[in-house]
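hey can u run this one w/ glutamic acid bound, need the structure tokens asap thx
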Amino acid sequence: MMTFYEMVQRNFHRAADVLGISDDFRVVLLRPRRQLIVSVPVRMDDGRYCVFEGYRVNHCVVRGPAKGGIRFHPSVTLDEVRALATLMTWKCAVLDLPFGGGKGGVAVDTKTLSTRELEALTRRYATEISILIGPDTDIPAPDMYTDERVMAWIMDTYSEHHGHQVLGVVTGKPISIGGSEGRLDATARGLVLALEAASRRLRIPLVDARVAVQGFGNAGRTVSHILAKEVGAKIVAVSDSQGGTYCAKGLDVSAVERQKDEEGTVLGAAGGDRITNEDLLGLDVDILIPAAMEHSITAENADRIRARVIAEAANGPTDIEADPILSHNGKIVIPDILASAGGVTVSYFEWVQNHQGLRWEPSEVKRRLKKKMEDAFTDVYEVARRNSGDMRLAAYVLAVSRVSEAYRIRGLYP
Ligand code: GLU
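ok here u go:
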């Protein structure tokens, strides 16, 4: 099976073909700038030492400092981190943010750590990657199983090393210490804005639309909440790593959230039927939102998808072999590097506020996010219209052309 990183490279080559980029220059654009592997020793509560492996990759910095989250998950590998770092380069370029792409991760199951152990792991990892990170070089943010508390520890660790507070070294911080209004739900809001833009263009109404959401972390949960409570869509199914819940009439999302908080899973929540993640993909819905991990939509299950629109909240949820099946079946895919870009967009706003010593009102953040998402959607849509309607290809073409333009105009050092 192709690895995640190989798939990300393939998608790049499809765009490079359209743009007529030469083979030698493709290598320059694709190779990660820096790849760091670190050992993270932690003194556990029982006195033992435990060494975790961590990574930080800067894929590209020609349009600005590297930007991208940190993931704490048992399945994290260097291959995955460089795939995700590469995706961040394209994501920031699609949104026209002055950033390149980066990503980090530690192979660890945070559910087995105490708060003290998690803090020790985070601070030591931050120390190990401090040769890369900085407010003008590489700026981390939350990703799977990292949150604003983890960002606060990274900011504090980095600031202690430098002898003064450095707010702009990470984004996704708590508001009380330089975080931005609207960052917590930004990925979800960005996705909803992309869906609204698509719905206007393609005349697909969102009110009463039937929606299935795979994954109930920060993105999936908040998307379900906003779509149900603010947009008037019907969330008919949600799932997490243990399975899901389905109700054709629409789930009570608040009840699902309560069960998730109390029992740690959405399985059978809100009185719905228990379903598997595979069942969820095949449901008769209008919109499918993969909000879990990579390798969710594969060549095996793509044909069973009945949704008309697939809006990717996760990074890389669709295997490259699944894409032609989806387009053959007439599906509209709003790709990850567009649909999930709300988070990094508000991260950019946070970084700007930190640099300027300003705090924007929630309404200001919302207004700017809306403009960014709508502009990016229009840019991608226009490219798609000129190139066979494939929105993923279009997003890559747009991103790769912006990055290669920056490369060419800067020239190569020395
Ligand atoms: N981890 C998020 C993403 O994959 C956010 C990155 C950021 O805010 O820098 O887009």
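The chain is about 45% helix and 15% strand. anyway lmk if its weird
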